[in-house]
């Protein structure tokens, strides 16, 4: 499973004006197009611009808006009220009423507009990120689904191989492409048992800019979905032997556990994250994990419904196959990572690919 086969190759620096984006944020409009709404409720930012398809959930203002609201109200408005009292000496009743109304109105306005300023301002990390030209899709916009894939590594440094397979030509999504095993996260993945949880550093990276509700359970479900899909597509069972695995109603997990293996999330390392561009027919927020083959508990035969003839390929051999561009990009990231970090430490930065203002970006998590 991959995110998109249309990741472009050309790159250039983004020249957008920060003042233009800030101005649009102050008007509570999308910083990319100035037409879509920035908020879907009083202070809740919309995840996606309904007009342009811009991803907005990355923008974070944190505690800055309340501090600036207090600064402006406490220093500017209070000074104005004191000047009014001294210079104009209004009647007590009229003065108190007007001052209260002015304070409430100003605080309401600043509380809503100040977050817009910060959410319209470009992220500092974006200015140093890689920016790619790409045309958005033409389908109605939809939120990307959580998905995960696993790069299983075998061999020693200098001769490592990765487990990959070819998608059937009859598939609507990436037909004939050679990909890593993986797929979308299902509801049953939230309830699947496991032997050990994710490494704390991996858990922390998975929850960065997590769309919707952020939780450890959701991060674990992502890893479990990748393990389940790897089994379904290649027959590789990642985990620990278990003589008496718990019962599951879900057929896929019941089949997995019937082989006497309990998933183990602790050896998984996050390698990359990528979100399909807006307005594509299928959109995924995919996490790419990597794990060494010593985490394999067993290997069983499965029908070649998803991946045809899964095989161990060197990175050079994999490049000679028809790969989606994002898969090719993640392979290059993995090769560079292994050169300086052959053990895949959990605390290393992770690239995050996503689209903003019609260009792909690469941030580090």
What does this structure look like?
The structure is a single chain. By secondary structure, the protein is an alpha+beta fold. It folds into 2 domains: 11-122, no CATH class; 137-364, Nucleoside Triphosphate Pyrophosphohydrolase (Alpha-Beta Complex), CATH 3.90.79. It contains 8 helices and 14 strands. The protein has helices spanning 18-26, 64-87, 92-120, 200-206, 216-234, 251-257, 315-319, 325-340; strands at residues 130-133, 145-154, 161-167, 178-179, 182-184, 236-238, 240-241, 261-262, 269-275, 284-292, 296-299, 307-314, 351-356, 359-364. The strands form 3 sheets. Strands 1, 2, 3, 4, 5, 9, 10, 12, 13 and 14 form a 10-stranded mixed beta sheet that branches. The chain has a two-stranded antiparallel sheet with strand order 6-11. The chain has a two-stranded antiparallel ribbon with strand order 7-8. β2 and β3 form a beta hairpin. α1 crosses α3 (92-120) and α2 (64-87) runs antiparallel to α3 (92-120). The longest helix is centred in the N-terminal third of the chain and has 29 residues, at 92-120. The protein is elongated. The protein starts with 17 loop residues before the first helix and ends with a strand. Residues 1-15 and 121-135 have low confidence and may be disordered.
């Amino acid at each position: 499973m991959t995110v998109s086969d249309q990741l472009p190759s050309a790159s250039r620096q983004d020249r957008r004006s920060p003042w233009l984006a800030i101005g649009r944020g102050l008007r509570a409009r999308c910083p990319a197009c100035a037409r879509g709404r920035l908020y879907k409720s009083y202070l809740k930012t919309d995840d996606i611009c309904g007009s342009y398809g811009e991803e907005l959930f990355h923008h974070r203002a944190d505690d800055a808006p309340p501090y600036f609201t207090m600064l402006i109200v406490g220093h500017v408005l209070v000074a104005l009220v004191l000047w009014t009292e001294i210079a104009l000496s209004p009647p007590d009743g009229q003065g108190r009423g007007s001052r209260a109304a002015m304070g409430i109105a100003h605080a309401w306005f600043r509380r809503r507009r100040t977050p817009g300023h910060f959410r319209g301002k470009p992220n500092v990390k974006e200015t140093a990120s890689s920016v790619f030209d790409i045309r958005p899709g033409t389908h109605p916009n939809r939120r990307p689904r959580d998905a995960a894939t696993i790069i299983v590594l075998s061999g020693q440094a200098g001769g490592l191989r990765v487990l990959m397979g070819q998608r059937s030509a009859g598939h609507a999504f990436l037909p004939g492409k050679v990909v890593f095993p993986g797929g979308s996260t299902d509801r049953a993945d939230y309830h699947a048992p496991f032997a050990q949880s994710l490494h704390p550093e991996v858990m922390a990276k998975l929850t960065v800019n997590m769309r919707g509700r952020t939780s450890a359970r959701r991060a674990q479900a992502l890893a479990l979905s990748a393990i389940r899909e790897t089994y379904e597509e290649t027959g590789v069972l990642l985990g620990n032997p278990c003589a008496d695995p718990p019962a599951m109603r879900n057929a896929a997990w019941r089949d997995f556990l019937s082989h006497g293996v309990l998933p183990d999330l602790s050896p998984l390392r996050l390698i990359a994250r990528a979100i399909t561009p807006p307005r594509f027919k299928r959109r995924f927020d995919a996490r790419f994990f990597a794990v060494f083959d010593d985490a394999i508990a067993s290997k069983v035969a499965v029908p070649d419904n998803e991946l045809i003839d899964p095989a161990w390929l060197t990175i050079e051999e994999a490049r000679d196959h028809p790969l989606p561009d994002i898969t090719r990009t993640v392979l290059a990231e993995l090769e560079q990572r292994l050169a300086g970090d052959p053990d895949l430490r959990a605390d290393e930065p992770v690239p995050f690919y996503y689209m903003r203002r019609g260009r792909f970006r690469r941030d580090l998590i």
